[in-house]
């Protein structure tokens, strides 16, 4: 048997959770298999993300924050962060001496990837959206290979070889698979809820930043429906009290929470999901085989959430509606259709499952191993 070439891996990630958590998952699984990993973090959430990584036993180092250069002042901070981050990364890479450096997208990855280029370490990239982002498009000129979560709609912009690897999803989400009744039983015990396994169950999340559609329009619409159903609504910590108030007059079973750890219980309990279409969310919907009504975040860079949603829509695994068109009337019509035509949505479950790539983390590590 050939000796494994990939033994030490640096992963650079940060910024939003969509870049950080897939990188964290790869590092954790790589370390479980006996490898050494180190995270280099940048972006606004360095302190929180460093603490999360270290709590899981994964070495993580924060670099100088580097804001997007959208004004003269931020451009100066960007240049300063780029220079200091690159110099710090060069020292860290030389001390750690990795077999490869993996960038998870966003300009937060630029200093470590530039340092890897200057130090001649093999560079690999991963992009978690259907539209390859600006940073990865630029960095691909130096990369040996790029893994993608979905078939990219702008593959012609990538300057290195590419492979569809899937999106790394936390193993705790997919290791414990449950049927609907068991998942609802666990939720009832954990949260003293009164959900019923026989009722059609709607899962709602995505309004943590204050989206009126999720926090007000959907609850108000649900109060007007008379077909039996039940709701699980994850609000985000800052919106919990407001959303809970919207449901004050509800006569249907409801579990309303600010946030959760065991997200897989909610996916397994749901029959339909109403949510945004970030890369991780779309990947999870496919893994759990959940039909969805997707409302892309309208301010996502280059409209990439719309492209993510289309990955499911093209296979008839989901429907998509633009934020501006998601009215009470639209929501009522769609939910009534769901409640009256469960067999149609059961077909969507199979379509979603056919898109799933639960082995994404292994795919990425094997891609690096084969090409360093």
Relative strand content:
15-25%
CA distance, first residue to last residue: 18 Å
Number of domains: 2
Cα-based radius of gyration, to the nearest Å: 21 Å
Physical arrangement of strands within the biggest beta sheet = 3-2-1-4-5-6-7
Report the mean per-residue pLDDT as an integer: 93
Number of strands: 13
Give me the CATH fold name of the largest domain: Rossmann fold
Question: Largest sheet at a glance?
Answer: 7 strands, parallel
Q: State the helicity in percent bands.
A: 40-55%
CATH architecture identity of the largest domain: 3-Layer(aba) Sandwich
Number of helices: 15
Shape: elongated
CATH first level of the largest domain: Alpha Beta
The CATH fourth-level homologous superfamily of the largest domain: Glycogen Phosphorylase B
The sequence of SSEs as H and E is EHEHEHEHEHEEHHEHEHEHEHEHEHHH
Structural class: alpha/beta
Low-confidence stretches: none
Write a structural description:
This protein is of the alpha/beta class. It folds into 2 domains: 8-167 and 358-371, Rossmann fold, CATH 3.40.50.2000; 172-354, Rossmann fold (3-Layer(aba) Sandwich). 45% of the residues lie in helices and 15% in strands. The chain has 15 helices and 13 strands. It has helices at residues 17-32, 46-55, 72-96, 110-119, 134-139, 171-175, 180-191, 212-222, 240-246, 263-269, 279-288, 304-313, 328-340, 342-354, 360-371; strands at 8-14, 36-42, 60-62, 100-103, 123-127, 145-148, 162-164, 201-205, 230-234, 254-257, 272-275, 292-294, 318-320. Strands 3-2-1-4-5-6-7 form a 7-stranded parallel β-sheet, sandwiched between helices. Strand 5, helix 5 (134-139) and strand 6 form a beta-alpha-beta unit. Helix 3 crosses helix 4 and helix 8 packs across helix 13. The longest helix is centred in the first third of the chain and has 25 residues, at 72-96. It starts with 7 loop residues before the first strand and ends with a helix.
């Amino acid at each position: 048997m050939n000796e494994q070439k990939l033994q030490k891996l640096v992963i650079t990630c940060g910024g939003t959770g969509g870049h950080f958590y897939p990188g964290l998952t790869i590092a954790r699984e790589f370390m479980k298999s006996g490898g050494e990993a180190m995270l280099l973090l940048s972006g606004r959430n360095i302190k929180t993300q460093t603490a999360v990584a270290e709590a899981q036993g994964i070495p993580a180092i924060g670099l100088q924050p580097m804001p997007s250069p959208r004004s003269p002042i931020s451009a100066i901070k960007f240049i300063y962060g780029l220079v200091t981050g690159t110099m710090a990364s060069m020292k860290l890479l030389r001390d750690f001496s990795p077999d490869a450096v993996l960038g998870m997208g966003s300009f937060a990855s630029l200093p470590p990837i530039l340092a890897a280029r200057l130090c001649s370490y093999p560079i690999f990239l991963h992009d978690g959206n259907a539209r390859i982002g600006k940073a990865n498009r630029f960095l691909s000129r130096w990369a040996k290979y790029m893994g993608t979560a979905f078939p990219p709609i702008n593959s012609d912009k990538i300057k290195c070889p590419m492979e569809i690897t899937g999106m790394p999803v936390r193993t705790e989400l997919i290791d414990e698979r449950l049927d609907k009744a068991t998942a609802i039983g666990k939720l009832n015990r954990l949260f003293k809820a009164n959900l019923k396994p026989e009722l059609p169950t709607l899962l709602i999340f995505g309004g943590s930043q204050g989206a009126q559609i999720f926090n007000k329009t959907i609850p108000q619409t649900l109060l007007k429906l008379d077909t039996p159903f039940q709701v699980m609504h994850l609000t985000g910590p800052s919106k919990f009290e407001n959303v809970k108030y919207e449901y004050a007059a509800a006569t249907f079973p409801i579990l309303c929470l600010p946030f959760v750890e065991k997200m897989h219980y909610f996916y397994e309990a749901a029959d339909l999901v109403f949510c945004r279409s970030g890369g991780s969310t779309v990947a999870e919907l496919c893994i759990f085989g959940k039909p969805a009504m997707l409302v892309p975040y309208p301010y996502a860079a280059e409209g990439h959430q719309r492209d993510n949603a289309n990955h499911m829509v093209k296979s008839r695994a989901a429907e998509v509606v633009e934020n501006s068109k998601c009215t009470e009337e639209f929501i009522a019509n769609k939910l009534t259709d769901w409640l009256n035509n469960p067999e149609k949505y059961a077909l969507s479950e199979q379509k979603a499952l056919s898109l799933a790539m639960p082995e994404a983390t292994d795919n990425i590590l094997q891609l690096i191993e084969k090409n360093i």
